[in-house]
Amino acid sequence: MSAILGALEALDEDARQRVIKYVFERLKLEPSDSSRQSQGERTPATDSAEGDGDLSSTATKWLRRNGLDPSALREVYSFDTPTPELIATKIAGETTKQKLRSVVLLLGAAQYLSKTPGKFSDGSLRETCKHYDAYDQSNFGAYMKSLSSEVSGSKELGFQLTSRGIAAAAALLKQLSGSM
User: Fold this and answer.
1) Mutual orientation of helices 163-179 and 96-113 as an angle, nearest 10°?
2) 44-53 per-position pLDDT tens digit
3) DSSP letter string over 103-169?
4) What percent of the chain is modeled with pLDDT above 90?
5) Which of 77, 47, 44 has its CA nearest to residue 60?
6) Which end of the chain is more exposed for a tag (fewer CB within 10 A), N or C?
């Protein structure tokens, strides 16, 4: 093995790529996702964040299944952190209740897109709602209760999207990416 590595290291980058490609073709091997990425081939995960981080395989499948363009997500999320951060300049909704629903779906989708899916906290939800003018302190609890088919959880434990919420988030992301 060291002899092979030594021979490859002695070659320039282009020659090394040609040799590796030849070996794969000769032995009828399929390159793995990681070797395709190291050879510079683009995959949905690398397209989505342009090298800023990878999406989970579940997220990549979800994007493909819902006809979402991973590169369009850069208009909605920043992929500089382990969990994509919401950066959309505007969100869907005319009323505070509609905007709250959009924020919940987008935060939930961000968690779903992250490499380690989890829940989003009540604090981050309220902070994001305030940023997008989607926070009504007196009706917040009632509005969240009305979203129970799309989001589950609690103030103490955090929130996550239900199956219906994940589908609604995909529809919202299509709408947002089409309007930007």
Assistant:
1) 100
2) 444 444 333 4
3) HHHHHHHHHHHSSS---B-HHHHHHHHHHTT---TTTHHHHHHHTTTTEEEETTTEEEE-HHHHHHH
4) 47
5) 44
6) N
Pick the range with the lowest mean pLDDT from 37-46, 48-57, 86-95, 132-141: 37-46
| 3-state SS assignment for residue 4 | helix
Amino acid (1-letter code) at residue 73: L
Please state the separation of Cα 171 from the chain's center in Å: 14
Six-digit token string for 74: 């850069």
Every domain of the chain and the residues it spans: 2-45, 46-179
Distance CA 143, CA 68 (A): 28
**Phi and psi at residue 150, to the nearest 5°:** -110, -20
Q: How far apart are CA 142 and CA 139, in angstroms?
A: 5
Residue type, 137: Q
